Automatic annotation (TrEMBL), chain A:
Keywords from the named record: Cell inner membrane, Cell membrane, Cytochrome c-type biogenesis, Membrane, Transmembrane, Transmembrane helix
Family matches, as InterPro entries: CcmF_C (IPR032523), Cyt_c_assembly (IPR002541), Cyt_c_biogenesis (IPR003567), Cyt_c_biogenesis_CcmF (IPR003568)
Assigned protein family: Belongs to the CcmF/CycK/Ccl1/NrfE/CcsA family.
Pfam families: CcmF_C, Cytochrom_C_asm
Domain Cytochrome c assembly protein: 89-296
Upper lineage: Bacteria, Pseudomonadati, Pseudomonadota, Alphaproteobacteria, Rhodobacterales
Topological category with respect to the lipid bilayer: Multi-pass membrane protein
GO BP annotations, alphabetical order: cytochrome complex assembly
Annotated function: Required for the biogenesis of c-type cytochromes. Possible subunit of a heme lyase.
GO cellular component: a single term: plasma membrane
Cellular compartments annotated: Cell inner membrane
Name by which UniProt lists this protein: Cytochrome c-type biogenesis protein CcmF
A GO MF label: heme transmembrane transporter activity
Automatic annotation (TrEMBL), chain B:
Bilayer-spanning residue ranges: 108-129
Protein's name in the database: Cytochrome c-type biogenesis protein
InterPro entries registered for this protein in UniProt: C-type_cytochrome_biogenesis, CcmH/CycL/Ccl2/NrfF_N, CcmH/CycL/NrfF/Ccl2_sf
Domain CcmH/CycL/Ccl2/NrfF N-terminal as annotated: residue spans: 14-154
GO cellular component: plasma membrane
Function statement: Possible subunit of a heme lyase.
Gene3D superfamilies found in the cross-reference section: Cytochrome C biogenesis protein
GO molecular-function term, one example from the UniProt record: metal ion binding
Organism this protein belongs to: Roseivivax jejudonensis
Family classification: Belongs to the CcmH/CycL/Ccl2/NrfF family.
Length: 654, 157
């Protein structure tokens, strides 16, 4: 019964979305206030109906209603409750429903917080947003209905993929989707502005909070996914340049670019056409990501051929929205006259450089991701593009970005002087150089990667601190520092976070060490500065798995520092083994222990990795997201959100 | 995220390959000569496991990957250079095994795509910046109404 209600709510939401797509758009064109006003309640209704539908699906999962095919295929009665809930989006149908739920949530939020927008712009934004919903409601209802029933329900389900039965992964998709789908609002704003034919400072100011929020969520989502891969896949890799990862990374890079270019629109009324294009591309790449993931096209051409219906549907959505928006852009972009004037050396120019680097690096990822497909289609060559390509082709852009970031972020608006800014930053630069030199001297004959990472990390963090301190005025004081606008803090923290992530990536890659051996029970062996003892291996029974659990005692300088319990699990229902590494997390290094197979001559395979600075990668991601959140809570946005009257001249000069 | 998605899209075989990837290099595969072993590891990282999705043979636990790892070590022990080992594998399995694509044929375009795009974007960006720095500041100009109002004020004085 609840399932039927959920299904019905989904269909109703689809119908509401169709109304919201058409009526406000006509209203905005004809200047009929009544028709325009339809958008707001419709957006709220759409969201509530979708939320109801989603809740019904969660209910089906929690109560293990195996008459639903999606529950049967992805759940099991013995599964812990948390994973019954998160299993709702651990499959194609459910995750698409979550996608649409978040899409309608953003639509509703645009309606709730859009009080300051001119009525026609708001009506158009909500109509465009709803057009996207219509497409995805249709996709769900016609090709991937989560509510389809089985004629003969089985006695029990087939269980969720054990890899997904993990807290890190439970919350990874929602965050990722909040970011992905949040960019839809920027897209709607861009298209609405193109229809309206007007982009001004106020537009830049409205778009920025949405971009900030999406980018921050995307940062957390990607960070969570990477952390999950690190501890779950069993050898501590954190980024694989997998097509699916790239699919989320490209929108992130575009969102980061958009975030910065919207500042120029807001402050200087320049870069308008480019910003609109970025907004379209950012969401376009979210759609491409969805397409890549859902169609399975890049995983294997055959996966696509097996189920072409879904792939073609999403491809059609992608072509219609991105293509339509780009056509509209081509027709209208000429009308976007830039107003502001600024020198070649200025903050504006630095932001242009930031945009070029981010957009081109995203383009490199795109070409690398698509190349195997293109080569197979047009050149008849089956080839692979893997991590070695991306590391080589992508990393230089990030190095340059890190190098110019502190300088660019402190240049004066309109007309800056490099020499003056460089003088302010000299201490930070010297400090970073000194640290890098120290590290270079201390390491023994290994790559330059470590010292470069240390330099960039220190340069970015010290640069961000210098930026903050310089804002407190001559002979700054701590009290002034605390009172700086939150946007300033957000900027400094996010930039520092980027440095910390870069440092973590470089440190882990450069200084990682590993040890692979067969150990007998009771055997002690040394790995780096640690002495490990394989104390015991026992069989343990979990709720829906059987585990082989080792007890490894770790000593340093003769003192016991920690006991680790690495596991090898087997999930009988899903017939799948997983590895649960045991990790001793410390600030400067992780000790990562994995238990392998029993050997014929007795003993077990034990793998030990020392991973320096691993945590810094995710700490940096958190800081970046925190910076985004702080900027978002800045007074300017809160005031703008609550304002009843928002006219272009209300924009502060600086 | 890889998993979230991989699990939907993949058949059981591929998923198994991923899940078990913790295995990777086995103790009995490791060569006694550390210099040779580290060369073997480096080569393995650049070769793709053919039955897995986007995993090198160094990371994969599939039996095929294990065979390839042993093959790489066999060739190294036989005295092949790194390039010879890679060529040996590519001859048998095709360029699909190379995680780092060659620059041969149209592949130069893949490698040049980034730098080319940077040059183009840099050129367009520089042109734009020049335009902005020499343009007249319209925001500073007065509209006709403002101009009229200004002259009115000036007249009053």
């Amino acid at each position: 019964m609840i399932t039927e209600l959920g299904h019905f709510a989904l269909i109703l939401a689809f119908l509401v979305a169709i109304v919201q797509m058409i009526v406000p758009l006509v209203g905005a064109h004809k200047r009929w206030p009544g028709w325009m006003a339809v958008a707001e309640p419709a957006a709220t209704t759409q969201f509530l109906l979708t939320a109801g539908s989603f809740a019904a699906l969660v209910h089906a999962f929690v109560t293990s209603d195996f008459s639903l095919s999606v529950v049967t295929q992805n759940s099991h009665s013995a599964k812990p409750l948390l994973y019954k809930i998160t299993g709702t989006w651990g499959n194609h149908e459910g995750s698409m429903l979550l996608w649409v739920l978040i899409l309608t949530l953003f639509g509703a939020m645009a309606a709730w917080f859009g009080g300051g927008l001119p009525p026609s712009l708001r009506a158009r934004v909500l109509a465009v947003q709803s057009a996207v919903s219509v497409a995805f409601f249709a996709f769900i209802l016609f090709t991937s209905n989560p509510f389809s029933r089985l004629a003969v329900p089985p006695f029990d389900g087939q269980d969720l993929n054990p890899l997904l039965q993990d807290p890190g992964l439970a919350f990874h998709p929602p965050f990722l989707y909040l970011g992905y789908v949040g960019l839809s609002i920027c897209f709607s704003f861009a298209v609405a502005a193109l229809i309206e034919g007007r982009v001004d400072a106020a537009w830049g100011r409205w778009v920025r909070p949405w971009t900030l929020a999406s980018w921050a969520f995307l940062t957390i989502g990607i960070g969570l996914g990477s952390w999950w891969a690190y501890y779950e896949l069993g050898w501590g890799g954190f980024w694989f340049w997998d097509p699916v990862e790239n699919a989320s990374f490209m929108p992130w890079l575009f969102a980061a670019a958009l975030l910065h270019s919207a500042i120029v629109v807001e402050k200087r009324e320049a870069l308008k056409a480019w910003t609109i294009l970025l907004a379209i591309l950012a969401f376009g790449f979210s759609l491409i990501g969805t397409f890549i993931v859902r169609s399975g096209l890049l995983t294997s051409v055959h996966a696509f051929a097996n189920d072409p219906e879904r792939g073609v549907f999403i491809l059609a959505i992608l072509v219609v929205f991105t293509g339509g928006a780009l056509t509209l852009f081509a027709a209208r972009a000429g009308a976007m006259q830039a107003k502001g004037v600024f020198g070649v050396v200025s903050r504006e120019s630095a932001l242009v450089a930031n945009n070029i680097l981010l957009a081109v690096s995203s383009f490199v990822v795109f070409v690398g991701t698509m190349w195997p497909l293109l080569a197979e289609m047009f050149l008849d060559r089956k080839l692979s593009v893997g991590p070695p390509f991306f590391n080589l082709a992508f990393t230089p852009f990030m190095l340059v970005l890190g190098l110019i970031l502190p300088l660019g972020s402190m240049l004066a608006w309109k007309r800056g002087r490099v020499a003056k800014t460089a003088r302010t930053l000299a201490p930070a630069f010297v400090l970073a150089l000194a640290l890098a030199g120290l590290v270079w001297a201390m390491q023994t004959g290994r790559s330059m990667m470590g010292p470069i990472g240390v330099f960039l990390g220190a340069w970015l963090v010290a640069g961000a601190a210098t930026d903050l301190w310089s804002k407190t005025g001559r002979g700054g004081s701590v009290r002034r520092l605390v009172r700086l606008p939150r946007a300033d803090w957000g900027k400094a923290i996010a930039h520092g976070g980027l440095g910390i992530t870069m440092l973590g990536v470089a440190g882990l890659t450069a200084w990682e060490s590993e040890d692979i051996r067969v150990a007998q029970i009771g055997e002690r062996f040394e790995v780096g500065a640690f002495e490990l003892e394989l104390a015991d291996v026992s069989r343990v029974e979990g709720p829906n798995y059987l585990s082989t659990m080792a007890e490894v005692v770790v000593r340093q300088d003769g003192e016991e520092i920690v006991t680790l319990y690495p596991e090898k699990r087997n999930y009988p229902v899903a017939q799948m083994p997983t590895t649960e590494a045991a990790i001793d997390y410390r600030a400067l290094r992780d000790l990562y222990v994995v238990i392998g197979d029993a050997q014929e001559g007795g003993g077990w395979v034990v793998r030990t990795y020392i991973k320096p600075l691993a945590n810094w990668i995710w700490a940096g991601c958190l800081l970046m997201a925190l910076g985004g959140g702080l900027s978002l809570s800045d007074r300017r946005f809160r005031v703008a959100a609550g304002a009843k009257r928002a006219t272009p001249d209300a924009v502060p000069a600086e | 995220m890889i998993a979230a998605v991989r699990s939907f899209a993949l058949s059981g075989v591929l998923a198994l390959c991923l899940a078990a990837s913790a295995g990777a290099v086995q103790p009995d595969e490791v060569l006694d000569d550390p210099a040779l072993e580290s060369r073997a590891r480096e080569i393995s990282e650049g070769l793709r496991c053919l039955v897995c999705q986007n995993e090198s043979i160094d990371e994969s636990n599939a039996s095929l990957a294990s065979d390839l790892r042993l093959l790489v070590r066999e060739r190294l022990v036989a005295g092949d250079s790194d390039d010879e080992v890679v060529d040996f594998i590519v001859d048998r399995y095709g360029e699909f095994v190379l995680l780092r694509p060659t620059t041969g044929g149209w592949n130069w375009l893949l490698w040049a795509a980034g730098p080319l795009m940077l040059v183009i974007a840099g050129g367009v960006g520089a042109g734009y910046l020049r335009g902005r720095s020499t343009a007249r500041d319209e925001a500073a100009d007065l509209s006709p109404e403002e101009q009229a109002r200004l002259s009115e004020i000036l007249k009053e004085r």
